Please model this.
Amino acid sequence: MTIPGAAPRTHIVGAGLIGASIGLGLKSEGWHVTIEDAHAEAEALARAIGAGDAPGDDEPELVIVAVPPAAAPQVVVDALDRWQHATVTDVASVKAPIAAAVEACENAVRYVGSHPMAGREISGGLAAQGDLFKARPWVICPNGAHGEAVAAVRLVAETLQCDVVTMDAAAHDAAVARVSHAPQVAASAVAAALGPLSAEDVALAGQGLRDVTRIAASDPEMWADIARLNRPSLMATIDHIIGDLEDLRDADDLGEAVTDLIERGRVEVARIPGKHGGATREWTPVTVIVPDVPGQLLRLLTDAAQVGVNVEDITIEHSPRQPVGLTTLHVLPARAQELAHALAENDWEIAAP
Amino acid sequence: MTIPGAAPRTHIVGAGLIGASIGLGLKSEGWHVTIEDAHAEAEALARAIGAGDAPGDDEPELVIVAVPPAAAPQVVVDALDRWQHATVTDVASVKAPIAAAVEACENAVRYVGSHPMAGREISGGLAAQGDLFKARPWVICPNGAHGEAVAAVRLVAETLQCDVVTMDAAAHDAAVARVSHAPQVAASAVAAALGPLSAEDVALAGQGLRDVTRIAASDPEMWADIARLNRPSLMATIDHIIGDLEDLRDADDLGEAVTDLIERGRVEVARIPGKHGGATREWTPVTVIVPDVPGQLLRLLTDAAQVGVNVEDITIEHSPRQPVGLTTLHVLPARAQELAHALAENDWEIAAP
Model:
């Protein structure tokens, strides 16, 4: 069993992006980490990059299952059986089906669910980085596990400098269906609806469409796994979205129905946390026309810094047919006018207040 | 009639953001511009900021109708009747209903539809800027107008340094339904589906949800007008999206259905033009952990510039509970590793390759 506060001997099953990244991160903090993968090549690669050693005679105190979501339930059950004294966690992005698979085992008190929420979709151990999860949420679903098991998993998340969030597995799955899985599906559906358009039609796209469809370029196989495992919550969310869209179709006054939907959407968007956990701050955009030659962005930020205005966010919109881009600096409302004035004095063309 | 190449005497009906911005832009290029608004206060404001003079005795050669979309058809018909020798255009974001209203008039050959595509939704003459449309697409729908009328409207768009695109009105409406109106509605539906979640659940949101729902904070009234006018094309697009979502609900294998939808979406996303009209270039992301203190972004770009790597795009992701943000620099694939290495040498924490 894990001594609270001390690094447990850790074994990772699965040497893809997630498993290898966790291995690299823990090893760099001095943990004793071993790693294995069903594919000899992936295992050799993970060892070569220093994500974990070959297992020795000592039994692990903590096992981290980092296999594809569809395989996770069985691999977790097998791990609980194979290592009779270890805490077992997994990193799949759907948690209730794994908790359900474990529930019947007599070893269920040694299983804790994890979901380290990496923000990007790349795969393979070659892409691994020890700080992949740094500053990201790491959800822990205790599922009735005993306190020492939960503490061991929490120590992993804290060691990797994650933002630890404890949730019930079912609540986690319902939440990620709405904040992650359904938005992915909806973005793909909006993109797929471009199908009938000519290239000239698509060229009318502005930043709005680019934002909505950015995640539509994700890995289909991984999302197929996730959708299968989280089917009930995902379909409840999609039905919610279909219902709202059907209400538009059936409305006597489409305008009123659109107004109602947009107003409900605005209320929810305001709840999405911005910087440091508060609701999204209202920054004021200052949009500048930037010639497409190297170094302009740096020159722009240098000029902004000389006025002492902190740039909170940047969005860059490329113009489809012209050698310029529109770069928007988001700043505190009280500083926007001053910034626009100062930039104009430095020969920047300001596009909108 | 307009002498090709010479600036026509121009009268603007409607002194909101669009009308006043066009007036400012044309006047700064030396055009003779008059402006009126049904609201005396808006008219006085537009005159005060220099968006147009009071109409005199000379009849205008070109009339630009810049009233809310719902009012545009009648105001255009009235303008064709009121000024018997003028070319008339309008700037509404839906074009076929206005063309249909004009079609019955004997003056139809003097009407040309316009859609200057401003990228942001702010309203009122106070927000006007002469270069609001610079580097944006300006769609012209000739609708069978005679050549001189089309040339006069094209001259406006070119004078405002827009990217002129000529389209059929029906094709325009079908296209904007898919690239603009339906994405707006879908973003609101995704946001509205967050309704059942607690604040802690919503805090699991990553950059994907933020991107998809960014435009959900738009002005409900304007979108109600647009939806009413473009109902057939908007509903055809929404039915396309509903159909794709229902296919997921009805699928024997949800995973296969999701894979199919994501693959179709990827094909379409690749068609959205990136910089300079080509398909989106594949840039490689270099993600850096940036402490939330002023000046860090500038320091980061300065360090990137010292290696001579041009930053093509930037995305900034704020961490909900920690005093750091993740800033991603998008660069040419061949330069990404070199940039990451150089930044690491300058003590930046690189989060992912």
